[in-house]
Specification:
The complex is a heterodimer of chains A (311) and B (418). Chain A is mainly alpha-helical and 311 residues long. Chain A has helices at 33-43, 45-59, 68-88, 91-94, 98-120, 122-125, 127-132, 139-166, 177-202, 205-219, 227-237, 241-249, 251-263, 278-304, 307-310, and one strand at 22-23. Chain A starts with 21 loop residues before the first strand and ends with a helix. Chain B has two domains: 15-254, P-loop containing nucleotide triphosphate hydrolases (Rossmann fold, 3-Layer(aba) Sandwich), CATH 3.40.50.300; 262-381, Distorted Sandwich (Coagulation Factor XIII, Chain A, domain 1), CATH 2.70.50.60. Chain B has helices at 34-39, 77-85, 117-127, 132-146, 161-174, 191-206, 218-224, 242-254; strands at residues 15-29, 48-62, 66-70, 92-97, 101-104, 179-183, 210-214, 227-232, 235-240, 262-263, 268-276, 285-286, 292-300, 308-315, 320-325, 339-346, 354-363, 371-381, 399-401, 406-408. Chain B has a six-stranded mixed β-sheet with strand order 5-6-7-3-8-9, with helices on both faces. In chain B, strand 17 (354-363) and strand 18 form a beta hairpin. Classes of the chains: A mainly alpha (311), B alpha/beta (418). Chains A and B meet through strand 1, helix 2, helix 7 and helix 15 of A and strand 1, helix 1, helix 2, strand 4 and helix 3 of B. Strand 1 of chain A pairs antiparallel with strand 4 (92-97) of chain B, so a sheet runs across the interface.
């Protein structure tokens, strides 16, 4: 043993002479590559954890309130919409516990925008790393997803606080919708995020399009208004049943409706409480989004070979 | 534990890296935004420029060797390193390798300015493939090597560039790879730190690890590598010993002296400068110990006796190897009227193998110089021995048995070329 141990871990793992040669970036078939990538991501889970931690730490570094901003931002949004939609437009008169109604929707929406917005810039923002170190590129968008889920958890605590204050604890019967809807949201947003992250490398306009697109999408989702108005104005008054069905096919609309049904106790029995078969819809969406995620990963895998030279 | 490569049944001669017919093409897009693409839709093919950064590169590297990649800027050496590291995927061909790989392509690539040194150590170690448990275990050693204990909880954006690099290198060398890829990172930090890094690289070699590195420092090639690949425009020009490769590299690129600008009042002018065998015959290749002459032809516009000529010999790194002038040598050149030839003769050239350049100057005993030509001519020294350094010395070796207080005749080994 020398005085300067250059190999701090010893040579227990040094079995290069036994291991067979392995192909670097071996081509994977379009159909079969997904599983291999998933295994690789699992191998790198520790790094993924580090990257999530970095995302969380860096976001509010050097701000006085720091992590509190994670909570303040949705609360301010809640205040703005309560005032504008609830008071000025009068929705709070017809929709009971309008604050909780709003917040359940905003909660889901914030998670969605955090993932989409974060993923879009994930590769471009980490150009330095992408060009200099190899690990599965999927880890960059996935670390954004991880950080967004942690933030979601914190915001959920605020909702619990609101339940405690108002005493309107949700009934257990519908609560199973929350994890199901959450799963749909995360799978769907991750799929979109992967494609957008890759697209943004080749075309920087994507990040601006995403900003505008998310704004449009927000208003196409029943968060600050209720779904009955859409049904009234599209399906009944104009007779555009097709457009109404299209509106309901929006995965985010289903997620938000499921959140409202599960967590907005005061809405039970009112017309604003969506009565359709949400569980069935969510399962169908989950299947569709899983296929989408598979496809998105394949697109991402195709594109990622050229990331280092395009950045 | 750290005994290196001794494994029962090890096949040390098997390749650890195999590069097979690798070609890499780069596309250079000239426009990036949607508007530009739409506007140039029809002409978009013209807006993509393609070039081959690597062409049909094939080689195998055995475990325990140190391979240097050299070539001029843009010759594809960094690209090749990235292809081996898996950061770029080749268009044709493939790379195979085994064992853990760490790529030091840029120190601190994974550092985030807003995180503290401590946080960055964990993040960067994780990026380079260490587990959290291992990082915990070596954290103290990493901080100790970097020598910045007191700033470890400061955000790295407040670090000086030297501190930043020290910490990054400290993390990098504590990763325990079988294959290490190094790209020019050894040229960082102050001199003691560079020596520390070099020492660590050599320790890696003694452990029997495989190193592939890119450098412009030809001295590092000679010092560290046992095999060198010379690249030119993405093609492999030479794959051989460091001496062969350095010779080829110098022959290709360094043999023409760089005609730099001339300085001076030109009251007295240098007309020509030649490197000779000492008797006036032009010569450009020397063995150590041969006679070298430098002939300088000068002429004065008006007769003057206030003139001194000087010569300087520089090596490829612009290091001044030797410099003198007629004043230092105590030679009075007398009255200069018309043309004269000043001949310097160095009887036994005591220089090691390499490319050298000659700077000549002519100036008065005091005051601004008349004329100076930097690196105006060059010559090469070829040496059969693999000696390192700057000067060619010819030491003898004696062996003394200190127990018996007795002089022992040393065994003369057959000279074997490197």
């Amino acid at each position: 043993m020398s005085t300067v141990p250059s190999s701090p871990h010893g040579h227990a793992a040094f079995n290069a002479d036994v291991e067979p040669l392995q192909r670097v970036n071996a081509p994977r078939s379009f159909w079969g590559g997904f599983g291999a990538t998933v295994r690789e991501v699992v191998q790198y889970r520790e790094l993924l954890g580090q990257l999530v931690r970095k995302e969380l730490k860096v976001k509010y570094k050097d701000s006085v309130l720091g992590f509190l901003w994670t909570l303040i931002r949705p609360l301010l949004q809640l205040l703005v919409y309560s005032l504008a939609v609830g008071v000025f437009l009068g929705s709070s008169k017809t929709i009971h516990s309008f604050g909780i109604y709003l917040f359940t929707g905003l909660l889901a929406w914030t998670l969605f925008t955090d993932i989409i917005g974060g993923c879009t810039g994930a590769i471009v923002g980490n150009a330095g790393l992408v060009k200099k170190v190899y690990f599965p590129r999927e880890l960059f968008p996935l670390s954004v997803v991880g950080a967004a889920i942690v933030n979601f958890g914190l915001q959920f605590v605020v909702l619990l606080g609101a339940f405690a204050v108002t005493g309107q604890w949700p009934a257990l019967s519908q609560l199973a919708l929350v994890p199901l809807a959450l799963l749909v949201l995360v799978v769907f947003a991750t799929a979109l995020g992967l494609v957008l992250a890759a697209a943004n490398v080749y075309l920087r306009d994507v990040q601006y399009l995403v900003e505008v697109g998310l704004l449009l999408w927000f208003w196409l989702t029943p968060i600050v208004y209720d779904w009955t108005k859409v049904k009234q104005n599209l399906a009944i008054e104009r007779g555009w049943g097709f457009a109404y069905q299209l509106y309901l096919a929006n995965p985010m609309a289903n997620v938000v409706l499921a959140f409202q049904r599960a967590l907005w106790e005061a809405g039970k029995g009112t017309p604003f409480y969506y009565g359709g078969n949400l569980a069935g819809r969510l399962f169908a969406l989950l299947a569709a989004c899983t296929v989408l995620l598979w496809f998105a990963q394949r697109v991402f895998a195709r594109a990622q070979g050229n990331f280092a030279q395009e950045l | 534990m750290t005994t290196g490569l001794v494994h029962p049944g090890s096949r040390a001669s098997d390749p650890i890296v195999r590069v097979a017919d690798v070609s890499k093409q780069f596309n250079i897009h000239k426009d990036k935004s949607l508007k530009e693409r739409l506007v140039n839709l029809r002409r978009s093919r013209e807006h993509v420029e393609q070039f081959w950064a690597l062409r049909d590169i094939s080689f195998e590297l055995e475990s325990g060797h140190t391979l240097g990649l050299i070539g001029r800027n843009g010759s594809g050496k960094s690209t090749l390193l990235k292809v081996i590291g898996g950061i770029l995927t080749p268009n044709q061909g493939y790379v195979e390798r085994r064992g853990r790989l760490a790529a030091l392509l840029e120190l601190g690539a994974g550092f985030h300015g807003d995180l503290t040194g401590r946080e960055n150590v964990f993040l960067n170690a994780s990026i380079l493939g260490l587990s959290r448990r291992q990082t915990n275990q070596y954290f103290d050693a990493i901080v100790d090597f970097s020598g910045i204990e007191q700033f470890i909880d400061t955000q790295v954006k407040f670090y000086s560039s030297g501190m930043y690099v020290r910490l990054a290198f400290a993390v990098a060398i504590h990763v325990d790879p079988e294959i290490l890829l190094v790209d020019e990172v050894l040229a960082v930090g102050d001199e003691p730190f560079q020596r520390k890094c070099m020492e660590r690289i050599k320790q890696f070699q003694r452990d029997g690890r495989t190193i592939v590195f890119v450098t412009h420092g030809l001295d590092q090639i000679r010092e560290l590598c046992d095999r060198v690949i010379l690249l030119e425009h993405g093609a492999m020009v030479l794959d051989g010993t460091p001496i062969d490769a350095l010779r080829a590299f110098r022959d290709r690129y360094n043999s023409e002296p760089v005609a730099e600008e001339q300085h001076g009042t030109r009251a007295v002018e240098v007309l020509t400068t030649r490197v000779t065998d000492g008797a006036g015959r032009a010569k450009s290749r020397f063995d150590p110990g041969e006679t070298l002459g430098i002939d300088i032809e000068v002429s004065a516009a008006r007769p003057t006796d206030d003139w001194v000529t000087g010569i300087a010999i520089l090596n490829h790194l612009d290091l001044l190897v030797f410099g003198t002038n007629t004043k230092i040598l105590g030679v009075d050149l007398g009255l200069l009227d018309g043309r004269r030839l000043v001949r310097y003769v160095i009887p036994e050239l005591p220089l090691v193998e390499g490319q050298y350049f000659v700077t000549v100057a002519i100036h008065p005993h005091s005051g601004p110089e008349y004329h100076r030509l930097d690196r105006t001519v060059g010559f090469k020294v070829y040496s059969a021995s693999g000696e390192a350094g700057v000067v060619h010395l010819e030491p003898t070796v004696e062996l003394v048995d200190t127990d018996a207080q007795q002089f022992v005749e040393p065994r003369v080994m057959p000279h074997y070329p490197l």
